[in-house]
Design goal:
Blueprint lengths: L1 H21 L8 E3 L10 E3 L5 E4 L22 H10 L26 E3 L2 E3 L18 E3 L6 E3 L12 E3 L5 E4 L12 E3 L21 E3 L21 E3 L21 E3 L21 E3 L21 E3 L7 E2 L12 E3 L7 E2 L12 E3 L21 E3 L14 E3 L15 H27 L5 H31 L3 H9 L2 H33 L9 H20 L32 H33 L7 H34 L6 H25 L2 H15 L11 H7 L13 E3 L5 E3 L2 H6 L2
Parallel strand pairs: 5-6, 6-8, 7-9, 8-10, 10-11, 11-12, 12-13, 13-14, 14-15, 15-17, 16-18, 17-19, 19-20, 20-21
Antiparallel strand pairs: 1-3, 2-3, 4-5, 22-23
Helix pairs in contact: 1-3, 3-4, 3-10, 4-6, 4-7, 4-10, 6-7, 6-8, 8-9, 9-10
The structure holds 2-acetamido-2-deoxy-beta-D-glucopyranose (7 copies).
Main location: membrane
Keywords: Cell membrane, Disulfide bond, G-protein coupled receptor, Glycoprotein, Leucine-rich repeat, Membrane, Receptor, Repeat, Signal, Transducer, Transmembrane, Transmembrane helix
Family: Belongs to the G-protein coupled receptor 1 family.
Amino acid sequence: MIILHIVLLSFFILDKVSMSHRRGNATSTELERTKRSFYCHPGYFVCNSTNICVEQRFICDEYQDCEDGSDEWNCTDLNKDKYYNMLFQKRPDEDRDKMTFKDCKINYTATICQCSGKSLFCENRMLKIVPVNLPRNTKELDLSGNDLKVVNHFNFTSLNLLEILIFNNAGVSELGKKVFHKFLSLRYLYLNGNQLHTIQNGTFLGSSTLRFLYLSYNPIQRLPVGSFLGLGNLEVLFLRHCLLTTIPQNIFKPLKNLKSLCLDENKIESFPNGVFSYLTKLETLSLSRNNLKSIDAKVLEGLWKLNTLYLTSNSLTELKPQNFGNLTSLLTLDLQDNEIHTIDVKAFELLGKLNSLNLKDNTLRHIHAECFVPVKNLQYIYFSSFYSCSLVRHVRVCEPNGDGISSFSHLLDSVVLRVCVWLVAGAACIANASVMVGRALLKETNSVHSFYIKNLSIADFLMSLYLFLIAGHDVAFRGKYIRHDVNWRHSWQCTLAGMLSTLSSEASIFIMTIITADRYMSIVYPLMLRRRTMLFAGTCITASWTAAVIIALLPALNLGYFGDEFYGNNGVCLPLQIHDPFSKGWEYSMLIFCGLNSAAFGFITYAYITMFITISRSKLGLRSSQQHQDRAIAKRFAFIVGTDLICWVPIIIIKFLSISGVRISSQLYAWVAVFMLPINSALNPVLYTLTTQLFKQQLARIVYTWRAGGGGVRVECTPALQELSGISMTSAPRHHHGRWSSSKGNSASLTTSDVRSFQ
Ligand SMILES: *[C@@H]1O[C@H](CO)[C@@H](O)[C@H](O)[C@H]1NC(C)=O
Ligand SMILES: *[C@@H]1O[C@H](CO)[C@@H](O)[C@H](O)[C@H]1NC(C)=O
Ligand SMILES: *[C@@H]1O[C@H](CO)[C@@H](O)[C@H](O)[C@H]1NC(C)=O
Ligand SMILES: *[C@@H]1O[C@H](CO)[C@@H](O)[C@H](O)[C@H]1NC(C)=O
Ligand SMILES: *[C@@H]1O[C@H](CO)[C@@H](O)[C@H](O)[C@H]1NC(C)=O
Ligand SMILES: *[C@@H]1O[C@H](CO)[C@@H](O)[C@H](O)[C@H]1NC(C)=O
Ligand SMILES: *[C@@H]1O[C@H](CO)[C@@H](O)[C@H](O)[C@H]1NC(C)=O
């Protein structure tokens, strides 16, 4: 166990070291020196001051490939920050908490509100009415956190100089007509988090000075057409997280100067045609987190100035020709987290200025490189899988750079991973082969148990074949993986690899469960031992293999349910589906990796614990050796359960996490997929054969025979040697059979080989 940890740790350190080397100077094949008067080949980008062309994947990789470092310039997509800057705009008074109160500059003598400079702060005072007779030169009034309910214009005294009025969470449920018309200089109005169900016609009449209006977090379901009448100078309107389902056609007509409109987190399913057509100055439109199934050119008509459009987290399924129409000023288009599966070749036509395009978290299957030809100025593009980056070679920054396992150039990106695959494959191959050969040659007393172990090593041996297959293709694709990626993932070799790994891991799990059940029966119900015939064992094993073969074969049968990328989901052909947790066939993957395997693991853990308890309770006769023996058995059981735990539980946990929406680090994913899963196959021979008493005895016998010069002198194992090699119990039955009774009081004697079989 400790050794395993040391090995893992050293691999981890090696990995970190190798990462720093991976970003070495680009080699001559990776950099192409061309004259500036020429052009860089597609997929290459010229440095600012030298004539070096740098490949797309070396741009923004945190290593300077250009002498002037210009390949690391412009790496931050400023478009991305704009959204959060918009959502979390500071209120003019945001830093009030830090601000020390200034002297009161207005003639305020009452004690209800706190005065600072020309501001009056009356928040959280449990006010039920708006304070009256406020000084006429007040510039800012904060009434947040009170309980005002219905507010009308006669509740206010006219404050000609008031610029900022804050009513956040003030319990306002109704606003009368022309309610703010007495504030002749009002610029900012905050009404977030109130109980407004609607905004009636003409509410804002007479507030033509208003620039910023915040109505987020109100239970507004419907808005009449005249809600925003009189807001001719409004620049920013927030209606985030209301309960809006529809937007009337002409509602935005008065908002001739609107620049930013946020309708996030509503329940809007569609917009009437031309609803935004009056917003000729609109620059930012955010429709994220609604239920939009489609949006088309007719809806977005007239937005000449629009430069930022957010459609994140909707239900868009396809992009039709000229889907966004004539948005000739558009710079940023965010389509993350939709269900887009088809993109028409002409979908992005007329978006000539587009600079940043986000297509992450969509179910893109077949997109053509031609889609992106019209968007010549695209600088940043985001996909879910790095494979798609090969479609947009003219875009300077494409993310992601890899999926943790593969990258543009290599099937196995990490050097350590590459080495590990060979090591684990070799170890699993040699260990399992020697178990098979060894057990076939040596005569064994417990043939049923040996039969199980032989089958286990066949199953584990298949895993080494899988690893060799992957490692071999990794070598074949070295340096140019992206060119082979699609073909490889859809090839029969990849399907075969996926089937091998599934067959191996499932057969292995089934057989381990059978072995556990067998041991469990013989320890906990020793009277039923007669059942352990070769016929019964053969039936169990045949059933396991059949089940495993069916499980592995089903996805390869071209059933519609699995799609064509069940095994070809990633470069190593594992149907783990961690990065794309809801891709086709995820229920099946979930059933195998979580359902079946955690059930098996649960049973194994339970069985070993029960066995241990039974053993330690029942051995009353043996006193001196008991503790030592208990410890030895406990150690071995803990080792078996522990290795299963470190191999399988991370996979189960990670899979559950990814299903529940947690983003799994791609590094971790790679290690789990290529290392955790197969390592059990390399360890099983150690657990079930190489460290057992029986094996040690056989080995000792051979060594002793050899030492004796082959003179035919067979040296029997001395108890001392057995002591040294682990458990003293096996020497005991020679002198007296241990009588073990089960907890239920039944008793039966165990043969030496029974006990040996699990030691
Ligand atoms: C990269 O190249 C520069 C100059 O071409 C050289 O000075 C530097 O040592 C190289 N770095 C590595 C890691 O090879
Ligand atoms: C980029 O190169 C040009 C000359 O080709 C130079 O004038 C300019 O200063 C460089 N830009 C930076 C930021 O170094
Ligand atoms: C960085 O962006 C600026 C402005 O878009 C552009 O002028 C410049 O050429 C870009 N630099 C590189 C190295 O792409
Ligand atoms: C403040 O109010 C008092 C009486 O209420 C008045 O005498 C005084 O002139 C006022 N000062 C200003 C600056 O308005
Ligand atoms: C507004 O004025 C009416 C009539 O004077 C009064 O009943 C009501 O409580 C006032 N509401 C607020 C919020 O001040
Ligand atoms: C609001 O005004 C529009 C005309 O601007 C009218 O058609 C509509 O019926 C009015 N709605 C209400 C609730 O008064
Ligand atoms: C796009 O809009 C421009 C005006 O900004 C107009 O001249 C042009 O015809 C429109 N193109 C299409 C295809 O609608």
